What we know:
The chain has helices spanning about 15-30, 50-65, 80-90, 110-115, 135-140, 195-210, 255-260, 280-290, 300-305, 310-335, 360-370, 395-409; strands spanning about 35-40, 100-105, 125-130, 150, 155, 160, 180-185, 210-215, 250-255, 265-270, 275, 280, 340-345, 350-355, 375, 375, 390. The chain is α/β, with parallel strands linked by helices. The chain has two domains: about 5-45 and about 310-409, Aspartate Aminotransferase, domain 1, CATH 3.90.1150.10; about 80-310, Type I PLP-dependent aspartate aminotransferase-like (Major domain) (Aspartate Aminotransferase, domain 2). The mean pLDDT is about 95.
Amino acid sequence: MARINRNYLKLPGSYLFSTIARKVREYGEAHPDADIIRLGIGDVTQPLAPAVIKALHAAVDEMGTAEGFRGYAPDLGYEFLRSVIAEKDFKARGCDISADEIFVSDGAKSDCGNIQEIFGTNNRIAVCDPVYPVYVDSNVMAGRTGEYDSNTERFADVIYMPCLEENGFVPELPKELPDLIYLCFPNNPTGAVITKSRLQEWVDYARKNDAVILYDAAYEAFIDDASAGSEDPVPHSIYECEGAKDCAIEFRSFSKTAGFTGLRLGYTVVPKELMTGGEKLWPLWARRHGTKFNGAPYIVQRAGEAVYGEEGRAQIREQIAYYKENARIILEGLKKAGYEVSGGIHAPYIWLKTPDEMTSWDFFDLLLDRYNIVGTPGSGFGPHGEHYFRLTAFGSRGNTIRAVERISK
Length: 409
Ligand code: PLP
């Protein structure tokens, strides 16, 4: 008899976004004339940049010729993409990362979810609360989290690091020692960022305690470089911190940087010298990647390369500026309307405190019923997200302005 992986049965409830989709569908069916504005799910809406489209067309044409046809891509990604990533995302920022430390993939979700496979099941993980659900759920599936307690909404063996207003939504170093630490900055869902000196504290802590930091920088492109000249800037990469190559893996995505949510492209950096328990991690991830992943499509990797070209870079900057202006409109508009809001400066997410201690789901229902606006209840990201609500800057400008006007009224 085949047996299932019973760890899957420990996963609580239905997925946050399926619940939201169901509620919105039911509301739409009951109110067919409602003009619903969706600022919930974190998906982009702007079309791909012209330079990306040009590169896609060119690569498609190449694939139709005998000389240009490509089959399986190299497991770790094409050299043309890995070297431009190393140059532009890392060396240009003073980070000593080389092309062969970059593993190209179909996106950061897969990498964040899969990375735990190279670690033993007896590792203790630490996560922010609230948190992007993939980190915890993938560890639940692997049997690393213990049992779920529906009263506390926590897994017994996970170290939760509260991200609260009091700590600026940046967690404190945990007193209980974790083996694997998931950090994500700029943060989903709170939109918070970490400064270089605070991140350095995490790197020092990880090195001192032989922990590995799994650093998700999927929203790095939203960092406002106005902070670059300041004494304590917001880092784009954890490798800007001293010693990070000894203790950190970093995830990057083209999804929010360049609108690739539908194209699919990302990468993971595993430094060659990174070791734990006397073993190097690079060969393990190379082996895992080679065994279970057959490479991102050639045409998509060419599109990714175009993001780093002069034309592509300028166009992508414009796209990000568009979303950042949406974020500013939401942030300023809601502040003016008397809401307590944070995030939205170096991130496409605005984290809003619900009025009058309303629960996140009550506020969701209120926004949908009264203003026909869809957001994401903070409690869906963890117990410390309760009484908070996430709005995204990924809508169109018109919808963003209309949404803020409706809420302000
Ligand atoms: N990491 C975080 C924090 C995210 O919010 C998301 C997407 O919403 C991802 C990773 C997934 O990125 P990708 O589209 O590259 O899989």
